[in-house]
Amino acid sequence: MTQNFTPLLSTTDWNEEWKRLQIARRKADNSAYWDKRSKTFSTKDAPNAYVDRFLELARIEPGETVFDMGCGTGALSIPLGREGHKVVAADFSQGMLDILDGELAENGIATVFPKLMSWEDDWEAHGVREGMTDVAIASRSIAVSDMKAALMRLTSVARRRVCITLSTGSSPRMDERILSDIGVKNEFGNDFLYAFNILVGEGIMPEVSYIKSTRTDTFESFDDAYDGFSRMVLDAVSDKESPETSAALDRLRTWTEQHLVANPEAGEPDKKGVPQKPFKLDCTRIVTWAFLAWDTARR
Fold first, then answer.
1. Distance separating alpha carbons of residues 231 and 56, to the nearest angstrom
2. Distance (Å, whole) CA 191 – CA 165
3. What is the pLDDT of residue 1?
4. What per-residue confidence (pLDDT) applies to 286?
5. pLDDT tens-digit profile of 285-294?
């Protein structure tokens, strides 16, 4: 007798689950927030190893045009412009674009064209049209309510290839090792799995690679470090008031006491040129990004 069996992978609507996930885990990205954050950003503090690896995997060919969505201060747009590529660099933060403008002027780059535009805007009204560039990229910038719409928009713009990066669980906001050490499961990570499954559902088979980058955070005090890590714990769980979450925060306090050490480079400039604080972790945080790429075959 044959049993009825419905595989979950074929019945899950990954985009609808993504939408619910975005509602559950945090507020939508806000341009005013990134305008404020832009004051601490510049292409000078871009993680070069990450940028170099992204561009290596992207395989953008000489003379190709590029659309960089969520460009920030131009970590990718500036090296692409320096190589002579024409780049449309879009972001919804005017603060980020102001810094990009300054970097372009300082470097004498005239082939990068900043554009104030969000993922949700009418792209055509902003001059971003189907098949506009050879390649479309989105580096660590897909924090949207509708993942499928974002992926399909990028696919529409690119004549040849799309390249994106998304978190694998660990991110600047989330450290899987710390969570594991205190017995917390991140309920809201692995963004790239949603993108991968949505693309497969659309008949697209993306390449997948991984890019590792490091973070060396410094802190004013124990409380400064603990407060930052406690936000990480609360962002990782759905029930923030449960006894389990309270117990995890107690374990985090012990973990922080064990791993926070004096910073011998306190006062010296960090990668952003900001003086380092008196304390740091006794280990380097490692963030792993998933790089997904696919060909659009519009040529």
1. 34
2. 10
3. 53
4. 87
5. 888 999 999 9
Residue listed under structure tokens 């309920």:
187
Q: What b-and-e string marks burial along 165-192, b requiring 16 or more CB atoms within 10 Å of the CB?
A: bbbbbbbeebbbebbeebebebebbbbb
| C-alpha distance from residue 174 to each of 100, 144, 231 (Å) | 27, 18, 9
Q: Alpha-carbon distance 279 to 265, whole Å? A: 9
Q: Is 259 helix (H, G, I), strand (E, B) or coil?
A: helix
CA distance 177 to 187: 14
Q: What is the DSSP string of 202-254?
A: TT---EEEEEEEEE--EESSHHHHHHHHHHHHHHH-S-TTSHHHHHHHHHHHH
Instruction: Say how far residue 77 (Cα) sits from the centre of its chain.
Output: 16
Dist. CA 14–CA 199, nearest whole Å: 10
Q: How many angstroms separate the CA atoms of 203 and 136, rounded?
A: 19
- The owner of tokens 């449960």 is 242
Distance CA 233, CA 179 (A): 7
Tokens 């449309």 locate to 88
